[in-house]
Every structure is written in structure tokens, then in C-alpha cells.
Specification:
This protein has one domain. By secondary structure, it is an all-alpha fold. The protein has 1 helix and no strands.
């Protein structure tokens, strides 16, 4: 939350922000896979 508190991602925050987005993408992908697996059962 600190990163986007001011609605600006500066160069000092960019690496951490990118890592967070990467983690979120993996979580969403896993959730979608789980959802599809549950529907095919």
C-alpha cells in the first residue's frame, strides 16, 4: 500500500512493485487453474 499511496511508482519502488505484480499474476493463475479443475470434476 505504501508504494501506491501517492499514485506514483517511482524508480525506488518499481522493483518491489514489479515483484508484487508477478506474485499476484501467479496467484490469479493458480486460482483459475483450481476453478477449472473443480468444474471438470
Amino acid at each position: 500500500m505504501r508504494i501506491v499511496e501517492d499514485n506514483v511508482i517511482d524508480t525506488a519502488e518499481q522493483a518491489e512493485f514489479d515483484a508484487i505484480l508477478e506474485d499476484l499474476e501467479e496467484i490469479v493463475e493458480a486460482a483459475l487453474e483450481l476453478r477449472c479443475a473443480q468444474r471438470s470434476s
